[in-house]
Specification:
The complex is a heterodimer of chains A (222) and B (384). Chain A has 222 residues and is an alpha/beta fold. Chain A is built from seven helices and ten strands. In chain A, helix 3 crosses helix 4, helix 3 runs parallel beside helix 5 and helix 4 packs across helix 5. Chain A starts with a strand and ends with a strand. In chain B, helix 2 runs antiparallel to helix 8 and helix 8 runs parallel beside helix 11. In chain B, strand 6 and strand 7 form a beta hairpin. Chain B is an alpha+beta fold and 384 residues long. Classes of the chains: A alpha/beta (222), B alpha+beta (384).
Amino acid sequence: MEICIRLEEVRRIYPMEAGDVYALNGVTLDIGVGEFVAIMGSSGSGKTTLLNQIGCLDQPTSGDLFIEGRNTRELSDFELTNLRRDAIGFIFQKFNLIPLLTAFENVEYPLILKTGARDTTGKPADLLKLVGLDGGHIHHTPNQLSGGQQQRVAIARALANNPRILLCDEPTGNLDSKTGQQIMDILTDLNGQGKTIVMVTHSDEIASFADRIITIRDGVIQ
Amino acid sequence: MTFELAKRNVRLHLFRSILAAIGIIIGVVAITSMGMLGGALERSVSDELMNMGNSIIITPAGPSIGDEKAGIDERDIRQIKLIAGRHPTIAFYNTYDQIKVGENRRYASVYGVDPGELPSITTLVSGRYVSGTEGVMIGQSLARQYDIKEGNFITIGIGSREQRLRVVGILENTGFSGGIQTDNAIVGSERWYESKYGGRGKYDQVVITVEDLDEIDRIKDQIDARLNRREDIVNIMDFRAMISSIQDAIGQISLFVMAIGGISLIVAAVSILNVMLISVNERIKEIGILRSIGTQKSDISKMFLYEATILGIIGSAVGGLMSLIGGGFLILLIMQDIKYLMTFNTVFTIFYGMCIGIVICIAAGVYPAHRAAQMNPIDALSND
């Protein structure tokens, strides 16, 4: 299996007055291309820290992280930012849409970051349609949309630059079970199209959508 | 899109943005109005000084000794006129004497001028020019001070030399000029002056009005070479250096008052800094989102700098327009004349004031923008 994400003895240590906290303590992990992995664990176990490491939002204190074969330690902040823009899509529990922009513009924004120009291809509308949002809703700002609609926009935004990896942090955590089911159906479809998905969740039911479940406790994979 | 985000944030927090812009408006109005006043003053004084800027003044080099009056004689004047050529040249007598109007006494300049020359260097407000030895004319300021009209009498001289004379004409004020200063003076004919003060043919001053400023040095040099060949008979001076010094001094005063106005602009900058820091703090989460989806630090910086620039442009534009009113009011209040409001200088000052306003706003946005760009994405994302 071709490796998409590789962690080698990754540690993330937060220095505290009471002593160092090991959020991740020697994590070694391989995730293959097209795999759907669920990361489970109790609160404070280190699962979100692990997701942030994979998403290049943070750097390991020690150890190495490889994204599509590139060692993130050797990349500058500029290159890491471009990696996030091009290779990784984020889907958050609280949707994290930009409140000043409409649904359409939220999806368009990553495209503008890449091309430097407003979209003229209609791709944002296509992506929004793909996740089940069309009509007048696409010109609404996030506060005019329901939680389910916001998460659909977030998924469309994550897909804007056609990334190979989708990182989901409790994607259904703020949704009712029916909407959560619909979101998981979308993610399953995307995985079927070849996207590598790493998803943090508390829920066994949601985790059951994944090919592989990784459990983490006190910063160590069980 | 970063500019669009900045624009929308300004619109979203419209009241706060307006308050911040008001600070800039006040600052720009203060600095620009002061600058406009300084510019108008400079212009007004320049116009006043123009009259003497092109004058060459020739006075006797030696002092009067006893009854022997020092003066420039007819022969020297002929030489001067020869050198001056086409440039108008006038010679006149001048002294200082006591005048009495009713019970009021004061000292004033007294001129003795060829009546034929008077219409070319003065303008009448009322009455007529002097002729022969009959009567005198007085300047407008002096006439206003003692409420003198043509036909009234004034007394010139002290004790046995007192002479009662009819005022035949009032001369228009000319301001400060290089030649005859008639505003507060008595002007009589040469013949009257010679009969009262003596010294016939010994003129106190010769003034050449040079039409082309580049010729001043040539004429001065030639007069010096001709008249002061053996010994110094005359002093020759012009006012170019003095005018330049006065203009420099007014320029510095303008700069000083603009600096005082600038203090309000600094206060405005602090308010912009404060608004921008609040904006950064309110948008920490948004910064985290933008960073997580691949926005470079430089774009985050730009977003806040654009916001500061928008506030600066709006504040400075409104401030520039209001400066026309503020500056006009100041000019009217201090100079009692609005004619210097719409000059190149004042329009340039408005443009300059607006640029300073915008630059200060951008400068005030630099620190908040830098702070926003340096935020850790994870810390920013976890902010609620």
